[in-house]
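Hello forum,

I keep getting stuck at the same step: I have a sequence, I want structure tokens, and every attempt I make locally crashes halfway through. Rather than fight my setup again tonight, could one of you with a working pipeline run this one for me? It's a single chain of 297 residues.
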Amino acid sequence: MNDDDLLKNEKLEKVLSPHPLSFMRYQALSIILIIWGVLIGWLVNFSDWISFFENYWITIMVWGLVLLVVGVIASIVTIRWRIFFLYLGVFLGGFGLIMWQGWQDIVGVALPFYTVAVSIIGFLIVEWYRRSHKYIISNLRIVFKGGILTKEERTLRYDKISDINAKQGIIGQIFGFGTIIPISQSGFGLGTDESMAAGGIMLGEKKAKLFGIFGGGKEVQTPRARSYFELHGVYPYKEIKKIIEEMVQGSVITPYQQEQVAFQKEQVDVQKQMRDLLKMQAEPKDEQEKEDKEEES
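Reply #2:
Ran it on my machine without issues. Output:
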């Protein structure tokens, strides 16, 4: 933030970015690709299974099947189906490249190299995404900035913060970083977790069959925000958390301060009433003096 962007009486406290390991869940997707790329290369070229993988279709099917299964498992665990579609895209890209370039005869080499190359590109994209985040903490507000193609910005004043959620994962506890979500009075910073259960019953032995389905849902509000709109993976975690809590505490009006404000407002109202009363008493006197001057003239 430049000095021109600062407000009146505003002072910078910290300018932060997420810790390099704070996006490990995305980096883990690339790590899985590296492991599977190396493993499939070993299976096809150096293991006792070489004869099994002599047909390139079998190699492609096994390679793709493992990718899709891992994608499904990761999506179910994280409740993010875009992970599955990401792995599906990797599979379709590899399959299309093999068919387009006619690499069927060297599929045992092409697929491992392709898988590792995609994982390296994934690492670079995650790092680019991480570096696009910037969090500015001043004595008046928190400014959240981020975006690779489209830039987004959120400003939150301390007096608008109603609650603070802070969390550290296992890696965060080891390396001293964590995520802090300031929850505003409007509820910004809260998300909803939904769980759904369903089952089906099919009756009948012939073509005409009855199918029934039942389900139920439960919503639970939980602190959640996009990484651009929270202090994601900031370091040092405890120091930043303490700074924000002190700033929020300093912006809260205590009951004593509220009484003082109310008393001052009452005094101002009394002074205003006295001023209006004196003005009303002075007006008849001014009019009488004006009439006396007109008679004398």
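The helical segments are 24-45, 56-78, 82-101, 107-131, 170-175, 237-251, 255-296. If your local run keeps crashing, start a new thread with the error log.
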